[in-house]
Amino acid sequence: MRFEGIYTPLVTPYHSDFSLNEVALAQTIELLIGAGVHGLIIAGTTGEYYAQTPEERIEIMARAAALIKGRVPMIVGTGAIRTEDSVMYARAAKEAGADALLVATPPYACPTGREIAMHALAVERAATLPVMLYNYPGRMAVNMDEDCLDRLGRNANFCAIKESSGDPNRLHMLARDYPHIALSCGMDDQALEFFAWGARSWVCAGSNFAPEAHIALYQACAVEGDFTKGRAIMSAMLPLMRVLEQGGAFVQCIKHGLSLRGIDAGPPRKPLQPLAKDARRELEAVIRTMNSAISAIAGGMS
């Protein structure tokens, strides 16, 4: 499988009692497919998988598949501390009709590169689907090191890596030494650098509410190869990137952003709390300014 374009890690909309808001889920999926995103990721961090029961996660996989109806690829996250649980989610994802898996390092345990590889191989064997690896040491505490990548790179199903370390040296190493594992941007404020180093896809939570802006940057850089235009678009997006990457209320910002598109994504699940009033105002101002600037650059954006 070739990962090309914008992949949105879908939020999980909730009612005020934290039950699934099926109407809002359907609205979000229609918004994103209609805007032209290239794939949807279910049970990623943005989807708050860590705050859901196994039964809820499996139910959301099935509901999302029924709403997507094969119009774009569906990638399902298998994140869990225990390998046995990740294997279970991989099997459930295949049964639900997933096109690929997102496989992260198990958190908290701090496994070695070999142990991460053994975990990922067990998950892949459970479903025999294409895999996008997910390297995020900021949450998982360790990197998928060269030992890990060397072991997994021998299996063609490990065909991409979402790189979220924020380390430019990792970006260079992956592009230079592992060209057979497609590079996917997982650090929003470095998207321009990822595209310059050959990334063909971007997993971007902000595309839940601003798919047009993210597609515009991908189109300029990866499709047109116009990095002058790309720099202008990225410059307009950077204030949003700073809010999302450094603001400390990531999921809350994404959900509030969707509310500005007329979709009630509801509150985050505990321990997270809803976005404070001042933070909401800051986000709203940043989005308005960004949309106006990108409209002038790319044309036709609302």
Distance linking N and C termini? 32 Å
Q: Tell the overall outline.
A: globular
Structural class based on helices, strands and sheet pairing: alpha/beta
Order of helices and strands: EHEHEHEHEHHEHEHEHHHH
Uncertain spans? none
The number of distinct helices, counting runs of at least 4 residues, comes to 12
CATH architecture: Alpha-Beta Barrel
Give the total of beta strands: 8
What helical percentage do the residues reach?
Answer: 40-55%
CATH topology: TIM Barrel
Descriptive overview:
The protein is built from twelve helices and eight strands. The model has no long low-confidence stretch (mean pLDDT 96). Strands 1-2-3-4-5-6-7-8 form an eight-stranded parallel β-barrel, surrounded by six helices. The protein starts with a strand and ends with a helix. The protein has a single domain, classed as TIM Barrel (Alpha-Beta Barrel). It is globular, with a radius of gyration of 18 Å. β7 (182-185), α8 and β8 form a beta-alpha-beta unit. With 302 residues, the protein is α/β, with parallel strands linked by helices.
